[in-house]
Amino acid sequence: EPPAATFATTEPKLFRSAIIKFHEVSPWFAFPSALANASILQTLTLDPSRHARSLHVVDIGVSHGVQWPTLLDALARRPGGAPKLVRLAVAGGAAPPGPFSVAPPGYDFQSHLLRYARSIDLNLRIDHTEDLGAGSVALTVGETLVVCVQFRAGHGRADDRTAFLRSIRELEPDLVVLSEIDGGGGGEVGFPAGFARNAELLWTFLDSTSAAFKGRDSGERRVMEGEAARFLETAASEGRDMWRERMATMGFREEAFGEEALDAGKALLRKYDGNWEMKAAPAEAAVGLWWKGHPVSFCSLWKPHRRN
């Protein structure tokens, strides 16, 4: 029996095929990506002075490029015209590694994205950086800066998480999108409770992925499920209340999603299995993704309290 495939051990062509297929059949990552993209567009639309400015997106996520064609397409079609430059800074190394974060050696989404941007007449530049120091993320005066953190902030020790969020705060971004697994619990828990929480998360992933692939086995499905088994090796995910507390301590205030983002989320979920649901309570700014009545993840928007 060969060892279970993980992202790092998969051949790049199958890896790319697996993540694209998974986006098509499951909203696990596609849903928070859609909310993030709609919110980035909204940030540009709400302030007309941003229309012609550069857009700079710092990507600390697990989409390995799959999130961005939809955003690029929407930017190219904007009534006010596309930004004069779209910069994508891929900063995967800025956060501790976790499940779904490590691509196999030889995988390159940059050439695909640049080719796509040229085909829709969009000026795209892609940079890679290993940390978020202001020298590493080359900031330009007047650009709109968005930091998109998808399922990457919750790994490592508590002080790693704090240092990571502080480095984001120091960039003074216009918007931070934070998506995380919703562990439902409070802060850090002991090993037995943490392992049980992770086992439940893995079960949810396997159950929803089996439904997504309609029970059929495939190489793509095996890659996604093999990587998901790494949930059992990580710190138990925390609830959204812990993240709210942590972000507030760092000097961020939470923002509500706009109607267009919520509509985009609802429209996207209709494509998938009926056991998925979106939870957006009036009193809650964050939007939750649930499977069979249990929370899976949440997506939230944050802006820094401006320093005087």
General description of the model:
- By secondary structure, the protein is of the alpha/beta class.
- It has a single domain (7-304), classed as Rossmann fold (3-Layer(aba) Sandwich), CATH 3.40.50.
- It is built from 9 helices and 9 strands.
- Strands 1, 2, 3, 4, 5, 6, 7, 8 and 9 form a 9-stranded mixed β-sheet that branches.
- Helix 1 (12-25) crosses helix 2 (27-46) and helix 2 runs antiparallel to helix 9.
Task: Give a summary of the structure in a few sentences.
The chain is of the alpha/beta class. The protein has helices at residues 12-25, 27-46, 68-76, 110-119, 158-169, 191-212, 219-228, 240-249, 259-269; strands at 55-60, 86-90, 124-128, 144-150, 175-181, 252-255, 276-279, 287-291, 294-304.
Q: What's the structural blueprint in terms of helices and strands?
A:
Elements: H1 12-25, H2 27-46, E1 55-60, H3 68-76, E2 86-90, H4 110-119, E3 124-128, E4 144-150, H5 158-169, E5 175-181, H6 191-212, H7 219-228, H8 240-249, E6 252-255, H9 259-269, E7 276-279, E8 287-291, E9 294-304
Parallel strand pairs: 1-2, 1-4, 2-3, 4-5
Antiparallel strand pairs: 5-9, 6-9, 7-8, 8-9
Helix pairs in contact: 1-2, 1-7, 2-3, 2-9
Q: Give the helix proportion (percent range).
A: 25-40%
| Mean pLDDT figure | 91
In DSSP terms (H or I, runs of 4 or more residues), the helix count works out at 9
Order of helices and strands: HHEHEHEEHEHHHEHEEE
**Beta-sheet strand percentage?**
15-25%
CATH C-level: Alpha Beta
Low-confidence stretches: none
Number of strands: 9
Distance between the termini: 61 Å
In CATH, what is the homologous superfamily?
Vaccinia Virus protein VP39
Major sheet, described briefly? 9 strands, mixed
- Total discrete domains: 1
What value does the Rg take, in angstroms?
Answer: 19 Å
Return the CATH architecture.
Answer: 3-Layer(aba) Sandwich
Judged by helices, strands and strand pairing, the structural class is alpha/beta
Shape: globular
Query: What is the name of the CATH topology?
Result: Rossmann fold
Family: Belongs to the GRAS family.
Keywords: Transcription, Transcription regulation
